[in-house]
Design goal:
This protein has 206 residues and is an alpha+beta fold. Helices cover 32% and strands 26% of the residues. The chain has one domain: Nucleoside Triphosphate Pyrophosphohydrolase, CATH 3.90.79.
Length: 206
């Protein structure tokens, strides 16, 4: 979790975040505060609907599991090691993040924060285990106030109608950093949503 004592951070303005190449984050910006988060997503077995997890953070914002990288940043592997630790501390889930799960990095020069984003598909069994056990995590309910699933894809027109109704209301909430963009980018990259639903989600961000 991005808890930094002595500072009141406002991470919710997405326009303050500039996408940067990973080598720049590992060299020129390595002395800045580094954070890493991961979108854990999964499909159900019944209708192949897709869901992702979000959590309510200590600051009232919605975000993905992850947090500050305390280790010295020398490689993407060092970021992954810290991210795996943060996920376990926040939602009580042991997982293996790989380099292939890396999506991109952003920099907020006002806050002097570099944010690394990953996305990993997990099994339905793992997802159900997370829902059952996340309240036993070390950081609950201090930094993470709870975890919940959100719909991000569906197979049938009827479900698509409900997905768009959900998006229209849910995307009005206040999110940390680029979370709304990250959801859309992952859904587009892995073809989780239909093009029609994806365009509807994008339109809500205008």
């Amino acid at each position: 979790m991005d808890s930094m004592s002595g500072h009141e951070l406002d991470e919710s303005n997405a326009s303050d975040w500039e996408q940067i190449p990973l080598p720049k984050a590992l060299s020129k910006l390595r002395d800045e505060t580094q954070v890493a988060h991961c979108m854990l997503w999964f499909r159900t077995t019944q209708s192949h609907n897709a869901f992702s997890f979000l959590q309510l953070r200590f600051d009232g914002l919605l975000g993905f599991p992850g947090g500050v990288v305390d280790e010295d940043i020398t490689s993407i592997e060092s970021i992954i090691d810290a991210l795996q630790r943060e996920i376990h501390e926040e939602i009580n889930f042991e997982t293996t993040i790989s380099v292939d799960d890396y999506i991109y990095s952003f920099y907020n020069k006002n806050l002097r924060i570099v944010s690394h984003f990953f996305a990993k598909q997990i099994t339905l069994k793992d997802a159900e285990s997370i829902e059952e056990c996340h309240m036993k995590a070390r950081d609950f309910p201090h930094e993470s106030l709870g975890l919940f699933r959100i719909p991000i894809g569906c197979s049938y027109n009827r479900d698509s109608y409900y997905l768009r109704r959900f998006a229209k209301n849910f995307l009005r909430q206040k999110f940390s950093g680029n979370v709304k963009k990250q959801i859309i980018d992952v859904c587009e990259k892995f073809k989780i949503m239909s093009s029609h639903d994806l365009n509807f989600f994008k339109a809500q961000l205008q």
